[in-house]
Amino acid sequence: MFNIRKTVFTKEIITADEMGQACDRITRVAAVAVVRNPFAGVHQDDLSPLFDVGVQLGGSLTQELVHMLGAPAICYGKAALVGSSGAMEHGAALLHPALGKPVRTAIGGGKSLMPSNHKFGALGGSIDLPLGHKDEAWSFDHIDTMTLWVPDAPRAQEIILCVGLSDGTRVHPRVGTGPNPT
User: What angle separates helix 100-107 from helix 48-69, to the nearest 10 degrees?
Assistant: First the structure.
């Protein structure tokens, strides 16, 4: 049903902010799978085969990410970049409604909705993968983003599927810990 052309893994270890101010070590990891879109150029009402792809990739990619992270996952997120012959719903079908469950299983839980992003992109385009606390959706300190890209993807008939994890907050968060009850 689906064909993975390549998988790319990214690991960031952050030890200072943009100004050079030291911080506690923060590790962020992401997996990017370049997948052939079976519905590129075709209108298809039943996108459930893409749900299955999301489940399979969500589980296998996250298992690798847990190993790479080397610490308990505190934050998670997902994203999809759809090539020009696809439809926005193709990315949504990979991400929703089934990808989150195997991710939560691999990290040992997660009460919050997984932050997500999906958009169209050209060859070499970037995607912002949002991260948020796995249990506390309103933890402002944990709202973060990883920008990812694959130089030779997505081709017109491909989708880039991304899953990310982090073991901490943003560097030196200073915007408050949650909504202001005013």
Answer: 20
